[in-house]
Amino acid sequence: MTLREQTQRREDAFLSPYACRSAGTRGRKRAEEECGVRTPFQRDIDRIVYSKAFRRLKHKTQVFLQPEGDHYRTRMTHTLEVTRIARTIARALSLNEDLTEAIALGHDLGHTPFGHAGERALNALMPGGFAHYQQSVRVVERLEKNGEGLNLTWEVRNGILCHTKGEPAATLEGQVVRLADHIAYINHDIEDALRGGIIYPIDIPLEISSLLGFTHGARIDALVQDAIQASQDQREIRQSPPVGEAMAALKDFMFANVYTNPLAKGEEGKAQDILNMLFAYYQKNPDELPEDFQTIRAEEGVDRAVCDYIAGMTDPFAVGQFEKLFIPVGWTVK
After folding, report:
1. Is the pLDDT confidence value at 68 over 70?
2. Is the same domain home to 173 and 284?
3. The three-state (H, E, C) secondary structure of 134-170, written as one string
4. Does residue 195 sit in the same domain as residue 284?
5. Residue 36 has pLDDT above 70, yes or no
6. Pair 174, 278 in one domain
7. Both 301 and 200 in a single domain?
8. Domain boundary, last residue among 151, 176, 205
9. Of 239, 214, 235, which Cα lies nearest the Cα of 225?
10. What is the pTM of this model?
């Protein structure tokens, strides 16, 4: 018996009847020989972590555009926090932690530079629109490994696609990631906003803090424990009504006081202008797209190739391309 088979036997013995077992995966788009050591979901974790798209997350905005300071979140740190919260919930419910981790690590691979401001810009520019969760699936299916994609399992791709809104994921593990994503971003955005002086502790409504806690750790603990308790029957991953309403109210508070606050978001218009100008430039000059995107141009059109290129940029790379293309360079005498 291989190590993989031993792991799968343990999954059968110890996981919840409602958990997704790696031996029962719907498989990959392209059939592959099984690994003797790792389960299919463990292989997916490794493929995501070693991907170029994953490495670029460290230079992509979470909420604050290129903040000065070492402790503000990036898209990378957000992803890691989602992964930890999701694994905690999955373990408590005896779900498949490897599947949960793979979905969490891959859920934001398609996010644009400049956070949701960049996403809104590409949504307006791209015929048919743009959504980061759809782009994340495109990254793992089409863009990584020079166009081959990562060939992930169906369950991981489904969880990535369904992590934001719309129809819930087909697995409980995917549903865990959706809730963990919300728990993570609301709470770390509060912490970053407090650090940046955008809000102050007294601003958070007392009725919310009284239920969820007055600190970052207390709020996450309350939300995680509530999700575990409310989801014990494992029909779906849910929150209790009081806690769900409190988290919704906290999200409303953040939109009113942080996500639309000029102090925090005042530079977003400039960031969107950068992407608008880059998009228009490469539409007119598609020969200047990197070689990786020329095949996409030929098969799916210029707009698709330009969108994929810009969506994959980090914040500093997008700024650098803008400076290279649109900012005059001083002339010097040799």
Report:
1. no
2. no
3. HHHHHHHHHHCCCCCCCCCEHHHHHHHHCCCCCCCCC
4. no
5. yes
6. no
7. no
8. 205
9. 239
10. 0.96
